[in-house]
Amino acid sequence: MTENIRAGAVPLSSILLQMITGYWVTQSLYVAAKLGIADLVADAPKPIEELAAKTGAKAPLLKRVLRTIASIGVFTETEPGIFGITPLAALLRSGTPDSMRPQAIMHGEEQYRAWADVLHNVQTGETAFEKEFGTSYFGYLAKHPEADRVFNEAQAGYTKQVAHAVVDAYDFSPFKTVIDIGAGYGPLLSAILRSQPEARGILFDQPHVAEAAGKRLAEAGVGDRCGTVGGDFFVEVPADGDVYILSLLLHDWDDQRSIEILRNCRRAMPAHGKLLIVELVLPEGEEPFFGKWLDLHMLVLLGAQERTADEFKTLFAASGFALERVLPTASGLSIVEARPI
């Protein structure tokens, strides 16, 4: 896009208008995901009247949504008023290994509403989600089981998409015991254990999440080598792991809370242990990077942030670790490796 702007290939007003109206796409995809349209047309194209009847929608209005997102490759109108699947739309199916339906729903509901208060957030420092909902994001999830389920499904789906890139980029063979802190349903830990048949794992998360994760670990074929532990990483974490993995965890917390988590890992870790942080490490300068947008999302949602390598180094210095290296992966995520000191 930068090249087009510089070359004048696209009018600047058109480029800015597309940016301004980006929320139209978010909410249109949310409608299709929430109604389960991709599941209904997965086997064959369906007429709009049938789709409307099965979803409780108004046929003329649903048609307008589907014809619009079909224009960007999400679904296809095979004949007038008949809609079918496309590779992009297939990502909105339920229960598939690469499903992004939970992400589309999550970003279209409470998280979307929170962005309405981003200006207030920037001007006052009050987290936008808390202003909108009167509680913290995780406090909200604790009281709304369906939103919590969608969040954990979305996190698992994203992590599953990037797990193989992490496994390909790092040698996990030296580790006998792998402890995943804040692991959710355990897609990354499962990928690591499948790549290392002799290793054992411990999945650590909130009690209700750890309990639900047991079934997922069994389905992944690693349940016999992986235990689940419920707890609070602000209090303590399981001890004596050879490697502690914090994947997409620290970006949920400000520096003070992140240091608390890291200090608990340091107390639990043997001298030979390793710490691996899997996050979107922010580059310096103006280059486009998804992590810069996620950094704003963390601000709006949690009052938290993505970090640069130097900012991770500062966190480590305050919590008993030393930065060793930052390994990029094919997914855009990086593995930030540290050792206890």
Brief rundown of the structure:
By secondary structure, the protein is α/β, with parallel strands linked by helices.
Task: Kindly report the name of the CATH homologous superfamily of the largest domain.
Answer: Vaccinia Virus protein VP39
Which of globular, elongated, flat, extended, rod-shaped describes the shape?
Answer: globular
Unreliable segments of 5+ consecutive residues: none
Radius of gyration computed on alpha carbons: 22 Å
H/E topology pattern: HHHHEHHEEHHHHHHHEHEHEEHEEHEHEE
Number of strands: 12
- Strands of the biggest beta sheet: in what spatial order? 6-5-4-7-8-12-11
Q: Can you give keywords for this protein?
A:
Rossmann fold; alpha/beta; about 350 residues; 2 domains; methyltransferase; seven-stranded mixed sheet; three-stranded antiparallel sheet; Arc Repressor Mutant, subunit A; transferase; O-methyltransferase family protein
Chain-wise SSE layout:
Layout: H1 2-7, H2 12-20, H3 22-35, H4 37-40, E1 46-47, H5 48-55, H6 59-70, E2 76-79, E3 82-84, H7 87-90, H8 101-108, H9 110-114, H10 118-124, H11 128-133, H12 137-143, H13 145-169, E4 177-181, H14 187-195, E5 200-205, H15 207-219, E6 226-230, E7 243-247, H16 255-268, E8 274-279, E9 281-282, H17 290-302, E10 307-308, H18 309-317, E11 321-328, E12 334-340
Parallel strand pairs: 4-5, 4-7, 5-6, 7-8, 9-10
Antiparallel strand pairs: 1-3, 2-3, 8-12, 11-12
